[in-house]
Specification:
Elements (H helix, E strand, L loop, with lengths): L3 E4 L2 E8 L33 E4 L8 H10 L6 E4 L4 H10 L3 E3 L13 E5 L4 E5 L5
Parallel strand pairs: 2-3, 3-4, 4-5
Antiparallel strand pairs: 1-5, 2-6, 6-7
């Protein structure tokens, strides 16, 4: 699926989709990678090594540094997908070297948690693999 490249590189993992925006400042614990924001649908879920998809970021510009801290602490997502990237998340992804895309061809709503995904930030592509039937 074609997308707009935000941050270069390639990252793969289990797709973790949030319909709600994410605030990295006070919403994600930079030491553990667990979403801690009260009332967030993914509260208690670890984002480490996932392909984290959420519509957009919210909150302070310090969120960029939290994304960088996640990477430094080895608890960052393997890649990021936004419906529409904004500066805080884009800068964090670039600083941390986390591949990122947005503006997916076909739209954000087609993404489903659990599917294996690969984000290619160099080519501006997202590849999805359905899990094999058991």
């Amino acid at each position: 699926m074609k997308a707009r490249s935000i941050a270069k590189g390639t990252g793969s993992g289990r797709l973790l989709v949030s319909e709600a925006p994410i605030s990295f400042l006070s919403g994600v614990d930079p030491a553990s990678g667990i979403i801690i924001e009260e009332g967030h649908p993914l509260k208690g879920v670890c984002i480490r090594d996932t392909v984290l998809a959420f519509p957009f970021g919210k909150g302070s510009t310090v969120g960029s540094y939290i994304i960088y801290a996640l990477k430094r602490n080895n608890v960052a997502p393997a890649a990021l997908i936004n419906a529409e990237a904004e500066v805080i998340i884009a800068v964090g992804a670039i600083m941390a070297g986390i591949p990122m895309v947005d503006n997916l061809e076909g739209g954000f709503s087609q993404l489903r948690t659990g599917v294996h995904a690969t984000v290619d930030g160099d080519a501006g592509e997202l590849r999805l693999e359905e899990p094999a039937d058991s």
